Amino acid sequence: MSIPIKTIERMSLYRRVINRLVEAKKETIFSYELGKLINRSAAQVRRDFMEIGQKGNPQKGYNILDLRDALNELMIEPEGQKIALVGIGNLGRAVLTYFMGRSPNLVISAAFDSDNKKTNRVIAGCKCYDIGKMKDIIKKNKITIGIMTVPLTVAQDVADQLVSAGIKSIVNWAPIHIEVPKHVFLENRDITMSIEKAAYFAKK
């Protein structure tokens, strides 16, 4: 199933909302209700759910447990997926602390840094290795996702090493454009750009 990136982003948002509704013991929901919760139109919600074979009942709406199961099947690998985080500075530590234990199917299983004061230690519940061991450990542990919280001066080199190790998807927090092969998914997260965008609209 090939689904556009923007749709996948909405699916992730739906999944978070649906999980909260499951916890609240709600059984059904209409597209307009869900649309209000995520600031999208009812028509957009219906189009998205059609992508995963979910059709609401005109009288009752969507069954929430059915939505949860369909979204989990789309978004989650049953066997789980492992993540490598490269760069244990302030941002890297924050990512480790925030993410640890939040998703049982997505686990940061190894961290890497070039600073020997940080390596061979457990930081925020994750073993940190020397970056020189990255390729071997990624391959040995079948890690498929990489998170980069490294300085921009080394970002491209680190990305190249991740790709060489077999990483299939990269989340890049370095404020610089990097190149990856077409078969590797790249998500760029630029904090400065987001803040400047917010500043522009605050100014307007």
Order of helices and strands: HEHHEHEHEEEHEHEEH
Domain module tally: 2
Shape: globular
Strand order of the largest sheet: 5-6-4-3-7-8-9
Computed over alpha carbons, the radius of gyration is 20 Å
CATH class of the largest domain: Alpha Beta
Mean pLDDT: 93
Give the termini distance in whole angstroms. 41 Å
Structural class: alpha/beta
The CATH architecture of the largest domain would be 3-Layer(aba) Sandwich
The share of residues in extended strands comes to 15-25%
Percent of residues in helices comes to 40-55%
CATH superfamily of the largest domain: NAD(P)-binding Rossmann-like Domain
State the major sheet: 7 strands, mixed
CATH domain fold name of the largest domain: Rossmann fold
Low-confidence stretches: none
Q: Helix tally?
A: 8
Strand element count: 9
Describe the structure.
The chain has 204 residues and is of the alpha/beta class. It folds into 2 domains: 5-74, Arc Repressor Mutant, subunit A (Orthogonal Bundle); 81-193, NAD(P)-binding Rossmann-like Domain (Rossmann fold, 3-Layer(aba) Sandwich). It contains 8 helices and 9 strands. It has helices spanning 5-23, 31-38, 42-51, 64-75, 90-99, 134-141, 155-165, 191-203, and strands at residues 28-29, 62-63, 81-86, 106-113, 121-123, 126-130, 145-148, 169-172, 185-188. It has a 7-stranded mixed β-sheet, sandwiched between helices. It has a two-stranded antiparallel ribbon with strand order 1-2. Strand 3, helix 5 (90-99) and strand 4 (106-113) form a beta-alpha-beta unit. The longest helix is centred in the N-terminal third of the chain and has 19 residues, at 5-23. The N and C termini lie far apart (41 Å).
